[in-house]
Amino acid sequence: MVRAIMHGCNGQMGQMITSIVKDMDEIEIVAGVDISDHIKNDYPVF
User: Fold this and answer.
1) Helix or strand (DSSP H, E) at 31
2) Who's near 45: CB < 8 A, 6+ residues apart?
3) How far apart are CA 40 and CA 18, in angstroms?
4) Structure confidence by residue, pLDDT tens digits, 1-46
5) Residue 35's Cα: distance from chain center in Å?
6) How buried is 6 (Cβ within 10 angstroms: 0-12 exposed, 13-18 middle, 19+ buried)?
7) 46 within 8 A of 32, measured Cβ to Cβ
8) Secondary-structure percent of the chain, ordered helix, strand, coil, rounded to 5
9) What's the DSSP call for residue 45?
10) Predicted local distance difference test score (pLDDT) of residue 2
11) pLDDT score for 12
């Protein structure tokens, strides 16, 4: 399994990728990086 950090996770593209990856078994987002913190994610955002 690939464990990834998502840069820009709270933007439109980041949220789309997060929703796609959520249903996949081969990859998992373990953390995110974004200047905005207005969205609740299943992973910690720094």
Assistant:
1) strand 27-33
2) 9, 10, 31, 32, 33, 34, 37
3) 12
4) 999 999 999 999 999 999 999 999 999 999 999 998 889 999 999 9
5) 13
6) buried
7) yes
8) 25, 30, 45
9) B
10) 97
11) 95
CB 35 within 8 A of CB 9: no
What's the confidence (pLDDT) of residue 15? 96
Task: Report the pLDDT value the prediction gives residue 37, as an integer from 0 to 100.
Answer: 83
| Residue 13 C-beta-side C-alpha neighbours within 13 Å | 4
Tell me 2's DSSP state. Answer: E
Tokens of 36: 């905005």
Q: Which amino acid is at 39?
A: I
Residue 13 is predicted with a pLDDT of: 97
3-state DSSP call for residue 30? Answer: strand
